[in-house]
Specification:
mainly alpha
Amino acid sequence: MENYRALLDDKIYWRALRNTFYYAAMALPLGLICALLAALLLNTNLRGQAVYRTIVFLPSIGCEVMD
C-alpha cells in the first residue's frame, strides 16, 4: 500500500494522467470528425470521385498484396 500512497503524492504521475486525459479528449473527437469527413467526401457525387476513392483505398490494397 505504501507504493500507492507514494504514487498519489507524485507530481509526475498526476501530470502524466492529466496529459493522457487531455490527449484522449482531443485526439478521439478530432479523429472521429476526420473519419466522418472522409466518409462524407467518399460518399458524395464529386468530380473525380474515383480518384479520391483510389487514394483512400490504395494503402489497404497495398497491404493485402504484401501479405
